[in-house]
Specification:
The structure holds three protein chains of three kinds. In chain A, 19% of the residues lie in helices and 38% in strands. By secondary structure, chain A is of the alpha+beta class. In chain A, the strands form eight sheets. In chain A, strands 6-7-8-3-9-10 form a six-stranded mixed β-sheet, sandwiched between helices. The longest helix of chain A is centred in the middle third of the chain and has 18 residues. The two termini of chain A are 47 Å apart. Chain B is mainly alpha-helical. The longest helix of chain B has 34 residues. By secondary structure, chain C is mainly α. Chain C is built from eleven helices and no strands. The longest helix of chain C is centred in the first third of the chain and has 34 residues. Chain C is globular. The mean pLDDT of chain C is 89. Classes of the chains: A alpha+beta, B mainly alpha, C mainly alpha. Chains in contact: A-B, B-C. At the A-B interface, strand 6 and helix 3 of A face helix 7 and helix 8 of B.
């Protein structure tokens, strides 16, 4: 096969946006290039816009803005029946009034193939999905897995240039799903056509794809190979969504030096001194040592056996650290933790925010630093409401324990002002770092509670100045930690 | 015998007895009367006289004619209504459906009276177009019974099947013919059952619109008035056989929960 | 295309309601024929409520409808519960026989019942017994059919749970099962009332000669020539139309309140 034709772009999304009738923006300024023969997965939580994107490629929905190119031509106005694209639907959408043969032959008959061609092609498609001889079976007599295979056969028999798969394995049980993942992968190799796959299952995406597009809130968070996405997540969302990970906010304290969890670590990323960062550490990259040998210390708060490994949770100061280890740890034991420089992935904090995690008390009140903050917990948990006994239940009616709630309090550096009047602000601390950023200085203030705040200020202060921070309550944003 | 224990199944005994006495027994009596004469002797005369008289055969044919045309017209009007309503994005679909179904609850004789007054103005004399007027009257009476089951089937139709058809290359018309229409057959069949048999037998509509031709129902009425219960029973039996064949044929296609007259009351 | 569809629906609604609306307009005039232009008058409504014959007919129709609907609801509901819990006999006998009046032509049901009751059993029509039985035969199968789905939706172990907690079978049925299927019972009752009000054939074959329901009265009136009765019936039609609209609107509101 000619390598060059393999590399050509088959589908391109340029500045695609889609707004629903009620004004909700499902997809915002999407730019994706997919090459011929690739297995591309759109990955993200439900409601992230991945299915809408797929439906726009299929032609069931049209973008409100932007261009959708197929082989270099805009197909925005091409109806789905005219596109050389076929879909495997989430709930299969097999026609209940037709048998297996007629379901698979549906597209071929419309394209006016001869009877013998149709019989031959259907037979071949059934072989491809390992269901030879199922032609005359009724759809209702098939198991979920078999229906899934027929849905695939019905799509690929039309020899589309692109096959779209909308969470096709969602309705299958775990064992069946694993089996079908491998089978889909081998079908992809045999056919050599482009597969665009939608899933919310990160493991499925990592196993199957050549390329993963991670989406959240209608935007692309990161696109790349599974290895890139896993090893070099671009931001906290990707890191959190792909695999298990610990994310700590910290700052760079020198060349290849980063500070988080109250200690300084060596790292391999060269990021400018003083930059606020998020450090991603995979649980399997943390080594449990004796208390003296580790860089930081902590107390083991839970040990869960997971089959291949133990999942050990360690409390170190205010930070909760999850470690995967094949060795068991004793509950309540004090241990040391060591992280190899290669195990720390540094991400420059997206839109530089001070993010401080905090718990809530029994009444769900948020006590933060020295004061109580007003926030609306119900707006953070979708569908939640207060019960008469003061507890909160979520949309499914499950009680949410106050000690399970972690709130992330965010404030932009430029919304904080510094004052030398000790009583003016709600927190006080020393300036431990300062960087000149062209039109302003970016300071890092370490408070008495050992929290680091970034503050942007146009006036010059000195290192080690003792200041109080004025944080306007209306500028604080609250998010729920998942 | 010991004490009989209460079982919940026994609750159906009163209703069971009622059905046996007033539904099953009348059927037996009808069969008995249909094959006997005034002296209580077995005879096939009632049967042969029905099928040998041009009058009664003509009545059967006329009933079929009225029923086929009425059912056809109802289907042609009801299907688009149900289809548009089911596939539309109107916010108050159920209210609009109610508007179409509401006439069912207004006494049909009063509705036919209203129709008669309007037709009289238009046509001047109703006796000029007896067949047409009857079909209009029957359609006016039975249209909701056709709309309701078709709507019920179409509203349950999975939208992804239509997308799948388009995805596989079908245009709007092909999607309708190959997917929507075949999948709405149960609703259509239910509607036909609800309309066809009443249009063969509801002779009051003909009476009120001054159509003096007999349909099958009028024959029963005439024999009833003449106290000729043997021939009347034979007509009833023939209608029962037609109904039985009809039910056997349609049972294979019909959708059990669409079509009941109670559909709209579904609380 | 959307406009064409909306226009079609609008036209169909207009055609379905036009005769009733025209009749409603003319019911407020002193005209004896539609088409003629006359002045406003409430004469038809006065006649409707003052003429004893008309008043008795309306009261009789309503009384028959509610009485037969209550008996049908009791029989049909008990039948549905019994069949639901019985293995074979109930399902086969009651389930199958229940379908007969549903699919049968009304005139055949009416005639066969009449042959049995009057011809074989010698029941006197003027005793109202045949009329009442006839209406119950017509209505109870539909009550049965609206209760059965509610039973199927119900959690099967509710009854056992009630017995387990110490309820007697009768108490379990009344306190636990009945509330569960109550919406079906109510809609069955409503359906039974409308079926009775709409019926012509059963009534005309089984009624006493001196008794009339709206249906039989209207049919006789169209054969007769009394114009003041004819136009009083226009008023009746208008009143029924308004009542139906009010009931439907109330049902819709109740539905909405339930959803909120």
């Amino acid at each position: 096969m000619d390598r060059n034709t393999n590399k050509e772009n088959i589908i391109e999304l340029r500045h695609i946006s889609r707004t629903f009738d009620d004004g909700f923006r499902v997809v915002e300024d999407l730019n994706i290039v997919i090459q011929r023969g690739e297995f591309v997965t759109f990955l993200g939580p439900s409601g992230c816009g991945k299915t809408t994107t797929l439906r726009m490629i299929a032609g069931f929905e049209s973008p409100t803005e932007g261009e959708l190119l197929l082989n270099g031509e805009d197909i925005r106005d091409l109806p789905p029946n005219k596109r050389p694209i076929n879909t495997v639907f989430q709930r299969y959408a097999l026609f209940p009034h037709l048998n297996v043969f007629d379901n698979i032959a549906f597209g071929l008959k419309l394209k006016k193939f001869s009877k013998t061609d149709i019989v031959r092609k259907v037979k071949k498609a059934l072989e491809m999905v390992d269901l030879e001889g199922f032609e005359s079976r009724k759809i209702q007599t098939l198991s979920g897995g078999q229906q899934q295979r027929i849905a695939i056969a019905r799509a690929i028999v039309n020899e589309p240039e692109i096959l779209l798969l909308d969470e096709p394995l969602g309705a299958l049980d775990l064992k069946m799903r694993k089996e079908m993942q491998l089978e889909l992968k081998s079908i992809h190799e045999k056919l050599g056509i482009t597969f665009i796959y939608v899933t919310h299952d990160q493991e499925e995406a990592l196993t199957m794809s050549d390329k993963i597009v991670v989406m959240s809130e209608g935007k692309i968070q990161q696109a790349g190979t599974p290895e890139d996405i896993y090893n070099e997540p671009k931001n906290a969302f990707v890191a959190d969504f792909i695999g298990d990970s610990n994310i700590f906010s910290g700052i760079m304290t020198g060349k290849y030096k980063v500070r988080f969890c109250g200690a300084e670590f060596e790292c391999v990323d060269d990021v400018e001194d003083g930059t606020m960062i998020d450090a991603v550490v995979r649980p399997e990259d943390i080594v449990i040592t004796t208390p003296d040998q580790g860089i930081i210390r902590g107390r083991v708060t839970s040990v869960i056996f997971k089959g291949v490994h133990y999942e050990i949770t360690i409390q170190s100061g205010k930070n909760e650290i999850v470690v995967q280890s094949t060795k068991k740890a004793e509950l309540n034991a004090v241990v040391g933790l060591y992280i190899e420089p290669e195990g720390i992935h540094i991400m420059i904090a997206g839109n530089l925010m001070n993010r401080i995690e905090s718990g809530v008390d029994r009444e769900y009140k948020l006590t933060f630093l020295n004061g109580q903050l007003d926030y609306n917990i119900l707006s953070l948990i979708p569908g939640s409401s207060f019960q008469t006994d003061g507890t909160i239940v979520n949309g499914h009616g499950d009680v949410i324990e106050p000690d399970k709630i972690r709130i992330i309090v965010s404030i932009k550096p430029r919304d904080i002002t510094m004052s030398d009047d000790k009583e003016a602000g709600i927190v006080r601390g020393n300036i431990i770092n300062m960087v000149y950023k062209g039109d302003h200085y970016s300071y890092v203030v370490r408070t008495e509670e050992d929290e680091d705040f970034i503050v942007d200020d146009e006036y010059l202060w000195n290192m080690d100045d003792y200041v109080s921070l004025i944080i306007p309550k209306e500028k604080i944003q609250y998010t729920l930690k998942k | 015998m010991g004490k009989i224990r209460f079982s919940r199944a026994q609750l159906c005994i009163p209703y069971g007895l009622f059905l046996v006495c007033f539904v099953f027994a009348p059927l037996v009596v009808i069969i008995y009367y249909a094959f006997t004469n005034g002296q209580g002797q077995f005879t096939l005369e009632n049967l042969t006289s029905f099928f040998s008289s041009p009058n009664t055969i003509g009545t059967l044919a006329y009933s079929f004619g009225i029923a086929v045309v009425t059912t056809g017209v109802c289907l042609l009007l009801a299907y688009p209504v149900a289809y548009i309503l089911a596939r539309s994005s109107y916010r108050h679909k159920s209210v609009i459906l109610m508007i179409f179904v509401m006439p069912m609850w207004i006494n049909f004789t009063l509705r036919i009276t209203a129709l008669k007054e309007v037709l009289t103005i238009i046509e001047g004399n109703l006796s000029f177009h007896p067949f047409l007027n009857t079909v209009i009257g029957m359609t006016y009476d039975f249209l909701p019974f056709m709309i309701l089951p078709i709507y019920t089937t179409l509203i349950k139709l999975d939208g992804s099947l239509l997308e799948a058809a388009a995805d596989l290359g079908a245009d709007a018309l092909q999607t309708f013919l190959k997917v929507t229409l075949p999948l709405s057959v149960p609703g259509i069949i239910s509607g036909i059952v609800m309309v066809f048999l009443p249009s063969m037998t509801n002779y009051v509509v003909l009476d009120m619109l001054y159509n003096s031709t007999y349909i099958m129902g009028s024959l029963i009425g005439a024999y009833f008035s003449a106290y000729d219960w043997h021939n009347g029973s034979m007509i009833a039996l023939i209608l029962l056989v037609i109904i039985l064949l009809f039910t056997l044929f349609t049972n294979r296609y019909s959708d059990s929960d669409a079509g009941s007259r109670g559909g709209v009351f579904g609380a | 295309m959307k406009k064409v569809c909306a226009a079609f629906l609008g036209l169909m609604i207009l055609l379905m309601y036009l005769p009733i609306l025209i009749l409603a307009v003319y019911s407020f005039t002193d005209s004896a024929n539609i088409g003629a232009i006359h002045g406003f008058s409430l004469q038809n409504y006065v006649t409707l409520f003052t003429k004893p014959e008309l008043r008795e007919m309306i009261v009789g129709t309503l009384f028959l409808a509610f009485l037969s609907a209550m008996i049908s609801t009791l029989l049909g509901t008990l039948g549905a519960m019994g069949v639901f819990y019985s293995k074979r006999f109930g399902n086969i006998v009651v389930g199958a026989l229940n379908q007969v009046p549903v699919v049968n032509a009304e005139v055949v049901t009416a005639f066969s019942l009449c042959v049995l009751l009057i011809g074989v059993c010698g029941v006197d029509k003027s005793s109202f017994i045949s009329l009442l039985i006839g209406h119950v035969v017509l209505e109870s199968p539909f009550v049965y059919l609206s209760v059965v789905p509610k039973l199927k939706q119900m959690d099967n172990s509710l009854y056992e749970a009630a017995l387990d907690l110490g309820a007697s079978p009768a108490m379990a049925l009344r306190r636990v099962i009945l509330p569960q299927i109550f919406p079906g019972v109510i809609s069955g009752f409503a359906l039974a009332v409308t079926l009775s009000l709409d019926d012509y054939f059963i009534t005309s074959y089984t009624k006493p000669a001196t008794f009339d329901t709206i249906s039989t009265y209207v049919v006789n009136a169209t054969r007769g020539s009394q114009t003041n009765i004819k136009t009083a019936l226009w008023a009746l039609s208008t009143i029924i139309f308004v009542v139906v609209i009010v009931v439907v609107a109330m049902m819709n509101m109740a539905e909405k309140n339930k959803n909120n």
